[in-house]
């Protein structure tokens, strides 16, 4: 069995390396060298060289597999990038209707490409009634799915998706009949989704959709729920993985007993569950390992978890080598590796030996839960820090409090849905009953999330160094010669001490001097943070054309800098790119006061949700209808109410923010006419920093403004967009008047320290 582990491990390692090393013609030559080297070692006929021989040959096969996949998938997709082609396709999923377009996943074939999975954006409306298995044909403009919003993007390839397509006319839908396994799984998913929405109350239906099916759309739209689960460190319970597969098999064995029949039925049910939930890499890994576990006693073979783990990874990467870049796959394998290596030893160290009765049961549960939680995090924490810019410090505590009710929620929800198809009244009653454990779970996660330092954020530049030091200390304790029970105490205390020093240093640094002005890189949008002493002001919080939420970026930054509240959140206007992150920000950090223009109302889609969130959090809303001055500690804000000039939809609340003698002017999206009106009614001089209006649009930052305010530094908050921002015309005007220009799309986060 361990030879299989060596082969699978080397095969997978080669594919992972091919994913992350620079592309080029090195794959096949490297595979040939490894193969020849392995064969040369084999001729020596030394038993101790077998592992090396197996590893070299398997690694060569891995590189060859990656190269072959590129020839059959990524290269054909690139060959029609930005081209319009006639296509035929099979509908893979139910369409999702958005305002102005329909999104649907297809398996597409063109005259020069083999069948490839594609995300199709239909603006003709032809796919509104499409179902999985239906046929589609027409002309569309294709783009390769290796970029998103102008940046390299690997998540689509990890999901086996290689093309994106847009069509506005000429698309024909053909209804089909007959059985297709993929269509059956998609229809089962839709039936369960509809049943969950019908059975469960609105406050928990999004949670159950994520828990049962991995459908997180509703959860992501519920900022309070998402923040509670994420900040408390238990988002893993709604990522379909080994825990869910174990629950499913456990429920089946509870009903049928632990026997050959339940094992075979369990294997069938597990793979059906994987198909219905979309076949994510983490789910496939879990199903493979559970299958080997169930088959081992039937085949009279001993189950070897490391071999199962490596073999599952190799099988996944054999079918899609690009899945190595999947975040869920990496986290899944990291967690399981930690559990296999450390959980048993840690449980033995924590297991109560002298307790009796109920106390022993309780302490055993706590020991087992703590051992599993810490073990799963050992290898997962670096990945979480890299991908999510945070470390869930209190995740083990949350697990202890809530994991006991997760199988109740999971099993109870599936039972409720199943029973409701036969006895609707009984299914509804069971769903209402199961909703209460879910409410407890969400309430507990929400309380943990509100604890200071529940998560640590890597926007504090000292956090990566602290994390590296912690792992060095733990590794030294692990490999050290002294095997006393207390050998972990000194590394833990040193790690805790350095963490306290790092957190204190961040707080002291950002409270020093006159203050700080930071333009956050939120993509195409704007979010500015101003610090002075303990006071914090945020101007705008929104973005578009981004995979990240501006509120999360801003909230993580503020918390990482040791800020525990926002004194004033000024919204220049309620357009999406300036305000759609507000709801997430308010869940992450308390906001005392929100300033907004006076003419907002129900026609602004964000107005109602912001008002509701402000009411729930006790945030004061202030509508600025006339000029005035507001002070937050030593931060002085001169507020200019929107004027009458310029386009009505671009009228914004503008402000001059002063940190001592240093002034910053923020004009939102006002155009040149409004800028001239602003200058005619106010004396705005001796400004040091200009936040360039409307992300560098040609219609803003007029010559009169640039020449009169006296600034010498300009920041353009901009990201991927189709408007051409910032325009060459605006950049030339800024250069003519001697401005030093910084751009968030080129320079990332821009920080100015006012001494």
Describe the 3D structure.
By secondary structure, this protein is of the alpha/beta class. Among the domains are: 2-76; 80-178, Beta Barrel (OB fold (Dihydrolipoamide Acetyltransferase, E2P)), CATH 2.40.50; 463-510; 515-754, Ribonuclease Z/Hydroxyacylglutathione hydrolase-like (Metallo-beta-lactamase, Chain A, 4-Layer Sandwich). The protein has 27 helices and 25 strands. The strands form five sheets. Strands 17-16-15-14-13-12-25 form a seven-stranded mixed sheet. It has a seven-stranded mixed sheet with strand order 18-19-20-21-22-23-24. It has a five-stranded mixed beta barrel with strand order 1-3-4-8-5. α18 runs antiparallel to α19 (489-510). The protein is globular and about 90 Å long. It starts with a helix and ends with a strand. The mean pLDDT is 89.
Keywords:
755 residues; OB fold (Dihydrolipoamide Acetyltransferase, E2P); seven-stranded mixed beta sheet; single chain; alpha/beta
Kindly identify the CATH topology of one domain.
Answer: Metallo-beta-lactamase, Chain A
Please give the CATH class of one domain.
Alpha Beta
Global structural class: alpha/beta
CATH superfamily of one domain: Ribonuclease Z/Hydroxyacylglutathione hydrolase-like
Strand order, main sheet: write it out: 17-16-15-14-13-12-25
Average predicted confidence as pLDDT: 89
> What is the makeup of the main sheet?
7 strands, mixed
Separate helix tally: 27
Q: In percent, how much strand structure appears in the residues?
A: 15-25%
Question: From the alpha-carbon coordinates, what is the Rg to the nearest angstrom?
Answer: 29 Å
> How many extended strands?
25
> Which word captures the global form?
globular
- The residue ranges in which pLDDT falls below 50 over 5 or more consecutive positions are none
Estimated helix fraction: 40-55%
């Amino acid at each position: 069995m361990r030879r299989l582990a060596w082969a699978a491990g080397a095969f997978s390692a080669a594919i992972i390396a091919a994913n992350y090393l620079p592309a080029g013609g090195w794959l096949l030559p490297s595979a040939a060298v490894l193969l020849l080297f392995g064969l040369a070692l084999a001729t020596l006929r030394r038993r101790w060289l077998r592992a090396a021989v197996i590893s070299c040959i398997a690694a060569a096969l891995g590189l060859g597999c990656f190269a072959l996949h590129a020839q059959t998938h990524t290269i054909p997709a690139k060959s029609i990038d930005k081209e319009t082609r006639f296509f035929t396709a099979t509908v893979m999923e139910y369409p999702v209707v958005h305002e102005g377009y329909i999104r649907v996943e297809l398996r597409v074939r063109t005259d020069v490409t083999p069948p490839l999975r594609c995300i199709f954006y239909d603006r003709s409306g032809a796919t509104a009634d499409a179902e999985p298995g239906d046929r589609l044909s027409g002309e569309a403009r294709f783009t390769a799915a290796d970029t998103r919003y102008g940046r390299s993007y690997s998540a689509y390839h990890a999901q086996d998706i290689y093309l994106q397509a847009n069509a506005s006319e000429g698309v024909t839908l053909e209804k089909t009949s007959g059985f297709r396994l993929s269509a059956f799984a998609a229809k089962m998913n839709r039936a369960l989704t509809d049943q969950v929405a019908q059975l469960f109350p609105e406050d928990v239906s999004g949670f159950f959709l994520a828990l049962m099916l991995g459908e997180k759309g509703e959860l992501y739209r519920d900022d309070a729920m998402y923040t509670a689960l994420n900040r408390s460190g238990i988002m893993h319970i709604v990522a379909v993985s080994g825990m869910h597969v174990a629950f499913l098999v456990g429920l089946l064995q509870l009903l049928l007993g632990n026997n050959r029949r339940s094992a075979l039925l369990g294997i069938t049910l597990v793979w059906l569950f994987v198909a219905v939930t979309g076949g994510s890499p983490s789910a496939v890994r879990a199903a493979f390992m559970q299958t080997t576990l169930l088959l081992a006693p039937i085949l009279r073979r001993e189950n070897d978890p490391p071999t199962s783990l490596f073999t599952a990874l190799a099988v996944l990467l054999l079918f899609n080598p690009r899945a190595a870049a999947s975040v869920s796959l990496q986290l899944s394998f990291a967690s399981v590796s930690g559990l296999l290596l450390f959980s048993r030893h840690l449980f033995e160290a924590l297991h109560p030996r002298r307790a009796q009765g109920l106390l022993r049961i309780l302490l055993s549960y706590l020991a087992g839960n703590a051992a599993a939680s810490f073990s799963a995090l050992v290898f997962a924490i670096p990945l979480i820090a890299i991908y999510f810019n945070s470390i869930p410090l209190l995740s083990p505590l949350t697990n202890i409090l809530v994991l006991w009710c997760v199988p109740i929620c999971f099993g109870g929800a599936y039972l409720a849905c199943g029973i409701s198809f036969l006895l609707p009244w009984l299914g509804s009653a069971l769903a209402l009953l199961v909703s209460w454990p879910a409410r407890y779970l969400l309430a507990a996660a929400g309380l943990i999330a509100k604890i200071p330092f529940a998560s640590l954020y890597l926007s504090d530049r000292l956090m990566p160094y602290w994390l590296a030091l912690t792992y060095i200390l733990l590794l030294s304790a692990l490999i050290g010669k002294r095997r006393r029970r207390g050998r972990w105490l000194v590394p833990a205390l040193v790690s805790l001490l350095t963490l306290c020093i790092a957190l204190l240093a961040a707080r002291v640094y950002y409270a020093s001097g006159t203050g700080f002005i930071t333009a956050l890189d939120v993509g195409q949008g704007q979010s500015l943070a101003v610090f002075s002493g303990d006071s914090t002001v945020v101007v705008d919080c929104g973005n578009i054309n981004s995979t990240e939420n501006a509120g999360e970026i801003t909230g993580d930054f503020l918390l990482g800098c040791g800020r525990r509240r926002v004194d004033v959140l000024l919204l220049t206007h309620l357009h999406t790119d300036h305000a759609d992150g507000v709801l997430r920000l308010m869940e992450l950090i308390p906001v005392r006061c929100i300033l907004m223009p006076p003419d907002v109302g129900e026609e602004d889609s964000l107005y109602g949700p912001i008002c509701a969130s402000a009411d729930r959090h006790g945030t004061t809303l202030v509508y600025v209808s006339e000029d005035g001055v507001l002070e937050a500690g030593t931060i002085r804000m001169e507020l200019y109410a929107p004027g009458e000039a310029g386009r009505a939809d671009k009228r914004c609340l503008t402000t001059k923010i002063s940190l001592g003698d240093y002034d910053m002017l923020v004009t939102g999206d006002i155009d040149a006419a409004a800028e001239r009106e602003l200058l005619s009614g106010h004396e705005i001089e001796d400004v040091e920093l200009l936040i360039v209006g409307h992300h560098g649009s040609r219609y803003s930052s007029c010559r009169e403004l640039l020449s009169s305010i006296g600034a010498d530094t300009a920041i353009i908050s901009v990201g991927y967009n189709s408007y051409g921002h910032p325009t060459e015309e605006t950049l030339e005007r800024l250069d003519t008047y001697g401005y030093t220009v910084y751009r968030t799309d080129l320079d990332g986060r821009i920080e100015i320290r006012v001494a």
